[in-house]
Amino acid sequence: MTPLLSPEANESDAASHALIRVRGAVQGVGFRPFVYRLARELGLAGNVRNSADGVVIEAHGSAETMDEFVRRIESERPVYSFITAIEVTAASNAQAASGFEIGASLGDGAASALIVPDLAPCPECLAEIFDPENRRHRYPFTNCTHCGPRFTIIKALPYDRKNTTMRGFRMCPECEREYDAPNDRRFHAQPNACPRCGPQMALWSRSGTVLAERDEALWGAAEALRSGRILAVKGVGGFQLLAKATDDGAVKRLRLLKNRPDKALAVMYWSVADIEKDCGVSSDERALLQSAAAPIVLLRRRKEAQLAASVAPRNPNVGAMLPHSPMHHLLLADLGFPVVATSGNLSDEPICTDEIEALARLGRVADLFLVHNRPIERHVDDSVVRVVLGEEMVLRRARGYAPLPIRLAEPVAATFAGGAYLKNCVAFGSGNEVFLSQHIGDLGNPHAIEAFKKASSDLPRLYGAVVAIGACDSHPDFPSTCLVSSNHARVVKVQHHYAHVLSCLAEHGLATPVLGVCWDGSGLGDDGTLWGGEFLRVDNESYERIAHLRTFPLPGGDAAAREPRRCALGAQYEALGAALFTDPAHRALDPFTSEERSVLRSALTRGLNSPVTSSAGRIFDAAASLMGLCHRATFEGQAAMELEAIADPDEQGAYPFSMNEEDTLIVDWQPTLKALLEELSEGVPQKTIAARFHNALVNTVVAVARKVGLRVVVLSGGCFQNVLLLTNTVQRLRGAGFEPRWPQRVPINDGGIALGQIVGAAWATRSLAAETT
Known about the structure:
By secondary structure, the protein is α/β, with parallel strands linked by helices. Helices cover 33% and strands 22% of the residues. Strands 7, 8, 9, 10, 11, 12, 13, 14, 15, 16, 17 and 18 form a twelve-stranded mixed sheet that branches. A seven-stranded mixed sheet has the order 28-29-25-24-23-30-31, with helices on both faces. A six-stranded mixed sheet has the order 1-5-2-4-3-6. Helix 2 runs antiparallel to helix 3 (63-75), helix 20 packs antiparallel against helix 21 (686-708) and helix 21 crosses helix 22 (723-735).
């Protein structure tokens, strides 16, 4: 990156006196201590301070030394920092100084400094907590400028201790000496603490009785897990529920009490070596596991894995993670076995952050509570990533990633985006940056709505912004839409699938025109139907629906999203009409009682509560139900995941499909399902059938891309979380001469919608302004 030098900086007086502003992620990462040491090494005088928009440096020295100083700030910056701009201006009236110091933070100006995510423990801190001779031996809140909590403790900018939840803990003399020592890695480490002056752990019963404190609390927690009990742990960004991952009874009990019957549970291991006993780990996956973000990484489970079968039923993958805090490191080291580490919530609720709240909400689930007295400013769940085609792909963006921004090619007005209904994440955009919140979750209960409201005020407040525009989904009944509409004078509604495509465009800085292929569960379309199998031409800050999957009815409406059997029935009714119900041997009728068949027949033939959809996600559901894999889903995407899990990745065959020749192309899946049913009746192996179904859908994307003829093809929407679908589509498109792109740093599912809404609102307001002039 080239520093943005002011013309005045070349004048003679600026050669010896300069004001340097550094913007980016430069607070909470040891940036001021780095600048201090560099300036002292070069013999410069002056000071460095935090400010609302980053770091401000006043430096005095020779022109040659000043040039070297700026170059080395850029090239030698701390590892977890990044710089978006360095601005050097003349400071001819600056008062000369005899030395260099870290000065008090400047509180003036608009807040624009980037907040750093929470960082996993660095090797030096880990060495200390396992060293019996170190004063921080077994201290679970050990940190330094290279690691520790950031986003979960910050209350306001600039990032100073008084602006964090650590302000209630006064540093002891030894910690103060570290904080003030330029050559110490805790020099100006804001959360610095030790057993004498910092936060402490405690082990509570369900009633809140203190059973043990400090290190004894950790030992007691470990013993509880060994005995098969469920432990609620207050971590960095909220509570987790832990259970012994090799104890099938403990895991099943956790599932029952948490109301999570089928969805895979994440597993925390002590080391990568332990993970490799249960999973295949590539070099890219190893790097992600050991990164400062410490996310959950989806890995292929080995046949000889010792995990309980109930950890991930009917799923070939394991969501594996390493400890992401000193407390977790100590606990896993004491245990010697992996633990299930799932969100500390009931199904579909946000995670708890307060110990009293946790007793009330998790008291029926956890046997014991391992808590601490450092307040959590905002809940932040574990991030989830996987490696696809050699690239990192973020599926849930939370700890370790949020709230780092996505940088836009064009500036936007101060805009708040409310995101979607499922996998909600909100965003705030201003200038060339969009800040995405941490994962909030599905907005289907009061706890989630409250978390949404808090996050909605949190991001703009941190940056001291006055929001000019509210952006939201075009579905009028989404809670996010309702709340954005009621809280902002100027509101722009952005169609769901268009927002998906725009999110990818923004992340990669792509120019239009592009072909956007957006496949997901459903979103309200411009024609009032439920879209979800869309091909959009995006150009000139607008879009056109140029193709889509054949539509079919969903008997029962929203119920069909939870019952793949209804999708199968609706798809087969679209193909066969009322004749479907005259053939009692038809597979689509199998999962229903005679009474249910009668009710659904009436609904379909009369068009009652049977909305029409083009959803690719519901076609996956239909296929899974017709194959007998999943008739009722207990979590979103379950049927499609089970269909992907059994598919033979080496199978090259594909079922047929058809396509009309009209202006709006209709991709007809009826031949696909017909061939699937024929091969089921012939006894073709399910793994072959599942693969041929996937390959048919891949072929439809390539066929439409060839007809449209745009080189860049954007793939987005929840269906492309399916690695088999995404990988084969990308490879086939590349082989046909196209340039496929897909979201990677931003979730490809609805967690990325808010970013697209920011861009869509900016485009819409620019277009409106152009029309009015």
